[in-house]
User: Fold F-box only protein 48 from Chlamydotis macqueenii.
Amino acid sequence: MALLPPEVSSRIFSDLDVESLCHAAATCKGWHRVIESDDRLWRHHCLSARAAFSCLFFHQITLLRNYWKSKVKQEWLSGKYSNIPSQNSLPEKSMYPMDVDTWGEILEAELER
Assistant:
């Protein structure tokens, strides 16, 4: 899959159940990067508590991290943190580590408000 564009790899991985997705993520570094970085692959799995326990501990942490990353991203994009009086007013999880593209989306949304 190293030769495929990330969006094609993500589309292929989107057809996997959570256990297969976890096994694929453990296959190689390239697949792991694609799977771990795509919030859409994990979103529906994160909504099911049963699915969260079907992977090994490492992958459960990945599920939770991607869930919180997705949740925080949506809160930023929805304007929840717009017009705050100071940085001290931000909850701790509001600054969850995200990639440059995600922060770019958030900045664009803020500039449009």
